[in-house]
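Z., the sequence and structure:
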Amino acid sequence: MDYAKLDDKELAARACEGRQRAFRELLTRYERPVFSLVFRMVRDRELAEDVAQEAFVKAFNAIHSYNPSYKFSSWIFKIANNMAIDRLRKKELDTVSIHGSPNARSQDEEEESRITLTAQDETPDQYTENRELGNQIEEAMGHLRPEYRTAVLLRHVEGHSYQEVAHIMEVPVGTVKTFIHRGRSELKELLAGATA
C-alpha cells in the first residue's frame, strides 16, 4: 500500500490499527510544521526539538483519541502547542532578550524562525528593508504573552481559521479573536517603538 497517497484521516485510522508505517507518514508530513510552530514559541532550537519529539510520542500513544471530525493538523498542533506552553510556564523561559538571546542562534536558526516578507522581484534595497522588518517582527513576537503569540502564529503564519485556532488552543472563538486583536495591538506598539 502507498501510504503517501492516503489523506491524513485515513492514515490516522490505519495508525489506530497499529500500522506504524501510517504513523511514520503522518510524522513525515507534520514534523517540520510542528517543529516550526514550537520553535517560534520557545525560540530555542534544542528545546523545540525536544518538545516536537515529545509531541509526536504523545500523539502516537494517544492516536486512538484522535477525532476524525477535526483536521489531523489541528489535533497535532494542539498537542504541540500545549506542550510548548507547559514548557514555557515550567521553565519560565525568557523567550527574547532585547540585548540578545542568552542562547546564541545560528544564521540558519534565525532564518528558520523569521516571519519572511519577500517578493520574487524585489530590489536589493527592498530585500534589506524586508529582512530588517522581518527581524523586528520576530523580536516583537517574542515579547507577546504565549497565548497571544500562539494565536497570531496559528492564524497569520500557519493560516488556520479562527475555529481551528480555537480548537487547537482549546478556547472559545471569541477568546481567539481577543488574543489576536491584543497581540496585533501589542505588536504595533512594539514595532512603533522599534522604529522611533
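Confidence is low (pLDDT under 50) at residues 93-120. Residues 1-95 form a domain with the Rna Polymerase Sigma Factor; Chain: A fold (CATH 1.10.1740.10).

Let me know what you think.
H.
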